[in-house]
Specification:
About 10% of the residues lie in helices and about 30% in strands. The strands form three sheets. A five-stranded mixed beta sheet has the order 4-3-10-11-13, with no helix packed on it. Strands 5-2-1-12 form a four-stranded mixed beta sheet, with no helix packed on it. Strand 8 (about 155-160) and strand 9 (about 165-170) form a beta hairpin. The protein is globular, with a radius of gyration of 18 Å. It has helices at about 80-85, 130-135, 140-150; strands spanning about 15-20, 25-30, 35-40, 45-55, 60-65, 100-105, 110, 155-160, 165-170, 175-180, 185-195, 200, 210-215. The protein binds FE2/S2 (inorganic) cluster. FE2/S2 (inorganic) cluster (FES) binds near residues 188, 215 and 230.
């Protein structure tokens, strides 16, 4: 999992926080580094690796666009006010990892919480993560399954090593990745890394995790989390 380690020098990780604003942006605080994160695909169109792109200046506090309409992305420019953005949070506050689906093999268990899928598709890089898990008596297949699960930005997939009984997690420090998909012009979610707490507009905390993906296109049906909706065709406006 070495390629996934991305530590950074946040002075006081305890100050890192994200607050969802009602029908508005995410307020990020704690001087957290923000950078573009590109999905690089192989010739067959399947993602093979993450590539760090442009850095955006870290700020003590900033507002990140959630509606997808800002002209100053990744920051909010107030566009949500004029467009009637409905940012109602529809995701539950349950601990997602309490009852994931499970796939079990000789060396690994794969936890799967499908509703968190951001459709990054790293789980198909070198064989499906589920099939590899079932064949995890083979050390190479086990390692590949762990890598694919660790590359899942949303934390939908988590590999648990049966040798230790512990989840295998990438070593992230508090940081924000702005996912850019392989198709030109498709902006993916906000990749929240390193256990940054996320608080809803009504002041309740979502389950704190090493990695989650927040919607920044405004089209998710599982707000504030990404549900892959950024890749769906944009509906045509109704003609009166
Ligand atoms: S960014 Fe993925 S659904 Fe909005």
């Amino acid at each position: 999992m070495g390629r996934l380690v991305e530590k950074n020098p946040v002075e006081d990780p305890q100050r890192a926080a994200i607050r969802v604003c009602r029908n508005g942006p995410y307020v990020l605080s704690g001087n957290i580094p923000v950078s573009d994160q590109l999905i690089v695909c192989g010739d067959d169109g399947i993602p093979v690796r993450w590539e760090k792109g442009r850095d955006h200046p870290a700020r003590e506090t900033c507002s990140l666009c959630r509606c997808g309409r800002s002209g100053s992305k990744p920051y909010c420019d107030g566009s949500h006010e004029g467009t009637g953005f409905d940012g109602t949070e529809t995701a539950g506050k349950e601990a997602y990892l309490d009852r994931p689906d499970r796939t079990e093999g000789p060396g690994l268990i794969l936890w799967d919480t499908e509703k968190l899928c951001a459709v990054a598709l790293f789980c198909h890089r070198a064989g499906d993560a589920w099939n590899l898990t079932e064949q995890s008596g083979d050390p190479v297949k086990k390692a590949t399954a762990m890598e694919e699960a660790g590359d899942c930005p949303s934390g939908r997939l988590v590999a648990v090593d049966k040798a230790t009984g512990k989840p295998v997690e990438p070593g992230f420090g508090p940081s924000i990745g702005l996912v850019i998909g392989p198709q030109k012009g498709v902006l993916g979610p906000i990749w929240v890394r390193g256990c940054i707490p996320v608080e809803s507009a009504d002041g309740r905390a979502y389950t704190r995790r090493n990695r989650v993906t927040l919607c920044r296109c405004g089209r998710s049906c599982n707000k504030p989390f990404c549900d892959g909706g950024h890749g769906r065709p944009v509906p045509k406006p109704e003609v009166p």
